[in-house]
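User: My notes are a mess, but here's the protein and magnesium ion's SMILES. Can you give me a structure?
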Amino acid sequence: MPDTADMLRLEGLEVHFPIHGGLFARVLGRPAGAVHAVDGIDLNIGRGEIIALVGESGSGKTTVGRVITKLAQPTGGRNLFEGRDMTAKRGSSALRPYRHRVQMIFAYQALNQ
Ligand SMILES: Nc1ncnc2c1ncn2[C@@H]1O[C@H](COP(=O)(O)OP(=O)(O)O)[C@@H](O)[C@H]1O
Ligand SMILES: [Mg+2]
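Assistant: No problem, the inputs look usable. Here's the predicted complex:
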């Protein structure tokens, strides 16, 4: 059994979205900058622990959830599950065992019956 502190672990997680459009993109043909949606998060979630991510709109909560559930790819840092580095894993067959263990639970469906 892995150390409980290591069940789900984010190390320096970073998600930057390129800003397209505008004068820079049209003239220079490259992104004008980047939205720093997530800028270096370290987080450990142990077995049985419940974590609430709280912050103002646009502070990056959904993006963190999307990285953890492998719906978005980080631009930096790592996400580990039970000590295994999931950061570079892609594709439905490679991710199938992970998706059996880590998935979204939609509150309306789960709690409102
Ligand atoms: N796919 C995307 N492309 C570009 N910018 C995005 C994308 N997703 C989120 N963002 C931007 O990243 C920031 C964080 O968004 P989000 O994670 O949805 O925040 P929260 O869930 O805390 O409201 C916001 O500035 C948002 O506009
Ligand atoms: Mg959100």
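The pocket of magnesium ion (ligand 2) is lined by residues 61-62 (CB under 6 Å).
User: Great, I'll file this with my notes.
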